[in-house]
Amino acid sequence: MEAAANANQQVQRKGYDRIEAEITPDMETLLLRYLEIQRMSKELEDEKSMLQEKLSGHLAKHSDGFWYPVVKDIPLKIRFFRETEIEYDENALRARLGEKYRQILSPDMRKIRASLSELGEVLAPVIDKIGSPDRGKVRGAIESGTMRPEDFAGAFRKQTRTRLAVMRAQQEEV
Fold it and tell me: Average pLDDT over the chain, rounded to whole?
């Protein structure tokens, strides 16, 4: 149960304070340009997707492989292949197959991530193979006296990364 509580603590996001920085003319210009580039990037991604669809349509009658066209003396290499994705109705299969349903299951990383808080005890026997040191657990072990700070000296690298995201605020956030 304690493992589940620790995992839940890890999932919680850090709360951030509101920054009250001034908006200078330079910052206003910079932010407007940033938004413009975001818009252009989205438009380019959309156009790229549309061009990929048209190219795929052109190559659809061919088998998977590589195409080597030359366009205005620029040699190109285009990889074309099809993948089949299947999405199962898990509830229907579970109901139809009963206990046999387990026979067709494989680990799903997305579901494992979503259920980590519940899986702590189940994964404990193999944690040395699949686990990594957890900053919160290291801090807790030092604070509780179970481990000493010297045990960690020279055995880690601390790096501070700056992260920045610019997005349009929703009306209720302003």
Answer: 89
